[in-house]
Design goal:
20 helices; 3 domains; alpha+beta; about 10% strand; about 550 residues
Length: about 550
């Protein structure tokens, strides 16, 4: 098993493009940055995309075209049918049938409305812990069950973007895709001999749907117009603020529409992993010359599905090490280099027989400017010592609040100077009211949801779920101590200097972590299974309180 905690000092000497990035041991080609001419325009493309976003989500009187009526009709029908048919359904075991009914209708509406809404569903599907389980489970079906474009359409896109006939570039090109998603579909192929002499290795070609860019831009304008009217209309807490969700979604999906950005993300993450000495990840090689706005040719990698525990264990792979890989890997990239894979979910990771984790789909990637990276570090460090003011300042510097915000006023107005509420002592109605109050107060100060923070939290939720699948008996306190020790040993001086604590030793203190879990500070260990049992007990208690007060509070308006 490859040790995820290898430092740069322990990293073996690599040759060829393995010295550049965390690629597979033997690829179908060598990546050289000088040959990747498409990278010359990446910074310009990225800044252009960023400048477009405010215009795409700027409120207008009425969006042009008839798309508004189609979207409003589909969503209105979904919510209306749920209101008439599904809202009175109760809970059966751990499943909220009312939420499940609404989730099904929203998913069906999304699939009819097409790529933009399917992509929104895909993002929701990887939000375990953020969105209700019923919503996540339903939208998982959007990941790879999208109707594929015809082969003739795919062929036309590839030939147009590469400027050559298909059979001049590829010796083989499967007519049926391996997978079809909202933005693109992926085909197995083999490069022609004159492009990859003597190779013959299977590769994959990612091809963008031909009209998706125009449709996404049109749909974002419709979403921005509809969002204010949906506030309070969808009884799912995480969807209680549709305008903020639209803004984050626009920032997330906009970069996915140019595959040159995705290929650049692949290289940056792969190079970051190599520089950090991480040997437990593998990134597929993008082809140095066959990358365009709508076509991405890359190496094909395979392995065990992330939830195939029996297969992984049969291969002799330590599942605890896989979890450690996930936690250290994206934490280290974000903290040290300000770049991390932004869409971790089971469909984007494979576990190889040697224990390394292969990462795919870099359309959504977190990129922190130096200022935001420093703020991100302060947010993590403040959280470790329960410094609420420090966390608020870091959130401001991440872009959630205007730079000139008076934090003392915000701290007081939001009640952060009061004794914290015990969420386990609140009924769901009361908890929702408190959460909505907090969100409204933040928005009153001009707050938004920084994309990078949303992606990071979403990844944390995935890691949490991965622990439950791969290592339910993992000692969480021991693991947190191990990770903290790793960072202290490998990056302690840098982190201390950047936090203005040069010369000070970083101590591992689990007090705040234990408090956040709601366990006694004297507790020496707790496994994920034990923590899950505690969570289920709390959820049952909250559900019982909810049933007793079903005619009061926020959700009562949806039940009458």
């Amino acid at each position: 098993m490859t040790d995820v905690a290898n430092s740069s000092a322990d990293t073996p000497e690599y040759k060829g493009d393995l010295a550049l990035a965390a690629f597979s041991d033997e690829g179908p080609w060598q990546v050289t940055l000088d040959d990747a001419r498409w990278r010359d325009r990446v910074d310009t493309i990225r800044s252009t995309v960023e400048r477009q976003i405010p215009g795409l989500i700027k409120p207008t009187k009425v969006p042009a075209g008839g798309r508004l009526f189609e979207v409003a009709g589909r969503l209105g029908k979904a919510i209306g049918l749920w209101y008439v048919v599904g809202r009175r359904k109760g809970r059966v075991g751990d499943v909220n049938k009312s939420t499940a009914d609404l989730s099904l209708r929203l998913r069906e509406a999304a699939e009819v409305l097409g790529p933009t809404y399917i992509k929104l569903g895909q993002i929701i599907s990887s939000g375990q812990g953020i969105f209700p389980t019923e919503l996540v489970d339903e939208f998982i079906k959007c990941r790879d069950q999208v109707p594929a474009e015809s082969f003739e359409t795919v062929k036309a896109v590839v030939e147009s973007d590469l400027g050559q006939p298909l059979n001049a570039v590829f010796k083989e090109f499967d007519r049926t895709p391996l997978a079809a998603a909202s933005i693109a579909q992926v085909h197995r192929a083999v490069l022609a001999d004159h492009i990859s002499p003597g190779g013959g290795k299977e590769i994959v070609v990612k091809v963008q749907r031909p009209t998706v860019s125009e449709l996404v831009h049109q749909d974002l304008k419709v979403m921005a117009w509809l969002a204010p009217f949906l506030i309070g209309r969808i009884p799912v807490t995480a969807l209680a603020n549709p305008p903020a969700l639209v803004e984050v979604f626009a920032e997330t999906i906009a970069e996915e529409l140019d595959f040159r950005l995705e290929a650049d993300n692949m290289l940056d993450v792969a190079m970051s992993l190599r520089q950090l000495g991480q040997t437990a990840y593998v990134i597929p090689r993008p082809h140095p010359t066959l990358v365009t706005r709508r076509v991405l040719v890359m190496e094909r990698l395979s392995g065990f599905s992330f939830d195939d525990v029996s297969g992984i264990e049969a291969a002799g792979v330590n599942t605890h090490e896989i979890v450690r890989t996930s936690m250290i890997g994206f934490l280290e990239g974000a903290m040290i280099h300000g770049v991390f894979h932004g869409d971790l979910h089971g469909g984007n990771l494979f576990v190889q027989p040697d224990g390394r984790t292969a990462l795919f789909d870099f359309g959504i990637t977190g990129r922190l400017s130096e200022k935001k990276r420093q703020a991100f570090l302060r947010l993590l460090m403040s959280g470790m010592i329960s410094d609420v003011k420090g966390q608020l300042a870091a959130i401001r510097d991440l872009g959630a609040l205007p730079p000139d915000t008076d934090l003392d006023v915000v701290f007081s107005d939001l009640g952060l100077d009061q004794a914290p509420l015990d969420p386990t002592a609140l009924t769901p109605d009361e908890l929702i009211v408190e959460l909505q109050k907090f969100v409204k107060q933040l928005l009153g100060y001009g707050a938004n949801l920084p994309k990078e923070l949303m992606l990071f939290v979403k990844n944390l939720m995935f890691v949490d779920a991965a622990i439950g699948t791969l290592a339910p008996d993992l000692d969480l306190f021991g693991e947190v101590t191990h990770i903290a020790t790793y960072f202290a040993q490998n990056h302690g001086q840098q982190l201390a200097s950047e936090m203005g604590q040069a010369g000070q030793k970083i101590e591992v203190d689990l007090t705040s972590f234990k408090d956040s879990l709601g366990v006694d500070r004297s507790t020496e260990s707790v496994t994920y299974n034990e923590l899950r049992a505690r969570r289920e007990l709390i959820q049952k208690r909250m559900s019982d309180h909810h049933d007793e007060r079903s005619n009061t509070g926020f959700f009562s308006r949806f039940r009458r």
